[in-house]
Every structure is written in structure tokens, then in C-alpha cells.
Design brief:
Elements (H helix, E strand, L loop, with lengths): L1 E8 L11 E8 L24 H14 L7 E2 L9 E3 L12 E4 L5 E6 L3 E7 L4 E7 L1 H6 L1 H11 L8 E4 L12 H10 L4 E3 L5 E3 L1 H11 L4 E4 L22 E9 L3
Parallel strand pairs: 3-6, 4-5, 9-12
Antiparallel strand pairs: 1-2, 2-13, 5-8, 6-13, 7-8, 7-9, 10-11
GO molecular function, one term: S-methyl-5-thioadenosine phosphorylase activity
Organism: Actinomycetospora succinea
Cofactor: Cu(2+); Zn(2+)
């Protein structure tokens, strides 16, 4: 698992003392480790791809324990390539059907699973608000980023403070699509039109998402440039079917003095 963190001072703290410092954590998984057998080997975190449910549950437990929160503090979602956003306050109960999760609760991890689509991790450390979004071709074009940012601002986030990580995804050199589809997506997600190494039409969703974020006033954007199709340490639906799903996870916590 690859991990990262950012720190900031929270806004709006009560009392006469200094405002608490908030640290945002991010984790990206690979295929390494885990219990899943081929073709889902080994650290598959998707429970909708035909893998042994017991293996997936074991992998999710391992993830929760590995990030130091426990599996009961990791929230998942049933992703459907839509634009619905679920605001969550805990990881219990029924799993929401949505393509983005948002929370303002500390040490509640939000997980998105992908195998070519773009995992988008967003945070306003100053407000103590984080989000995890699933941006596939349809969701990205239909406005999943806008809906996610709207939900974040309703919890106190400010767009100009939001920091974003675009995780591993299929790259423009490999995401070949018909020319009509490329043009249709680029019309609503400008910047996403691309071409493969042999000159055929393709999509670069991360490029389109970066432009969309800039248009929305989000300028603090980092990109994990790994291509899921080319990196055999990552899952890719286009490279092999069936296959597993990697997870991108984010949460926030109060920084220790």
C-alpha cells in the first residue's frame, strides 16, 4: 500500500487556544498481498466482481488493520457509474449505492475501488472534510466532481482550499474508443480527447478531470501517473477480465502535537 498525508490547521475551532491541526491521509493499494486466488490475485477489494466473498472480506479486514483504523472504520459504496453522492457519518449499516462518499468525521476512511476508472480523493483539511469519488467515463462526463464538491461545501469545505489526488487509471495511450465516443465525451469534459500510440482515438480522463477541476476553482491537484493497463501490479478491467479492484482510501485525523 502506498500512503501519503497532508497537514493543515482547522478553521472555526472554539475556545481560546490554538485551532487543532488536521492531517489528511491517503492510501492506494496494489495487487500485492491478500487472499484472493487468480484471476483476482491477490489483494482484490471489490466485492462485485465474482471473487470469493470470504477472500474479499479478509482483504478488507487487512486493509482496515493495515491503515491503523480497523475494518469497522472503513466506509465502502456500491458504485454504479452514476453521480449520486452519499454523506456518511459511520461505516456501519447498509452500504450506500453511490459513486462518491463524503464525511466530516475524523478517522472515518472512505474507499473507492477501481480497475481503470479514475479514483479521486478530495480534502479540505481546514474544514475537516474529505471525499472519495469514482470517476469513470460516464460519471466524469455527467458531473460526479461537481456533485462531490457541492456535498463537501455543504459540510463547510471551501472550493479554493480543496486538495485533490487523481489516482492510478488507464492512460490515454491505452484507452482506445470510437471517434464518436471520444468526441462526445470531450464535448462535455474538455481536455479528455486523446490518441493511442498508433494514432487511434482514445480518452485521457485524468486530463479532462484536471481541466474540469481548474474550471471549478480547484488548483491543488496531484496526479499518480501510473497507468492501470500497463502496470501489472495494478488491476485493469481492459487488460484482463475478470479481474479485481484496487482501492483508494482517504481520511482525516487530528495531528499529534
Amino acid at each position: 500500500m502506498a500512503a501519503g498525508s497532508r497537514s493543515a490547521t482547522a478553521h472555526g475551532a472554539d475556545g481560546g487556544g490554538p485551532a487543532p491541526s488536521v492531517r489528511v491521509r491517503r492510501v492506494l493499494t496494489t495487487r500485492a498481498g491478500g487472499r484472493s486466488a487468480p484471476p483476482y490475485d491477490r489483494f482484490n477489494l471489490g466485492d462485485h466482481v465474482g471473487d470469493d466473498p470470504y477472500a474479499v472480506a479478509a482483504n478488507r479486514r487487512r486493509l482496515g488493520e493495515g491503515i491503523g483504523l480497523g475494518p469497522e472504520r472503513v466506509a465502502w459504496m456500491n458504485q454504479v457509474h452514476g453521480t449520486d453522492v452519499a454523506v456518511v457519518t459511520d461505516a456501519g449499516g447498509e452500504t450506500p449505492t453511490a459513486d462518491a462518499l463524503v464525511t466530516d468525521r475524523p478517522r472515518l476512511a472512505l474507499a473507492v475501488v477501481v480497475a481503470d476508472c479514475v479514483p479521486v480523493l478530495l480534502a479540505d483539511p481546514g474544514a475537516g472534510v474529505v471525499a472519495a469519488a469514482h470517476a469513470g467515463r460516464r460519471g466524469a462526463a455527467d458531473g460526479i466532481l461537481e456533485r462531490t464538491l457541492e456535498a463537501m461545501t455543504e459540510l463547510g469545505a471551501e472550493t479554493g482550499r480543496v486538495e485533490v489526488l487523481l489516482g492510478p487509471a488507464i492512460c490515454g495511450e491505452d484507452y482506445e474508443v470510437p471517434a464518436a465516443m471520444r468526441d462526445e465525451v470531450d464535448a462535455v469534459l474538455p481536455g479528455s480527447a486523446s490518441q493511442t500510440r498508433i494514432g487511434t482515438p482514445s480518452l485521457d480522463l485524468r486530463a479532462g478531470l484536471r481541466r474540469r477541476l481548474a474550471d471549478l476553482g480547484v488548483t491543488r491537484v496531484d496526479t499518480d501517473g501510473r497507468c492501470t493497463f500497463e502496470d501489472d501490479q495494478l488491476f485493469s478491467h481492459r487488460r484482463a477480465q475478470p479481474t479485481g479492484r484496487l482501492a483508494a482510501v482517504t481520511w482525516w485525523e487530528y495531528a499529534r502535537p
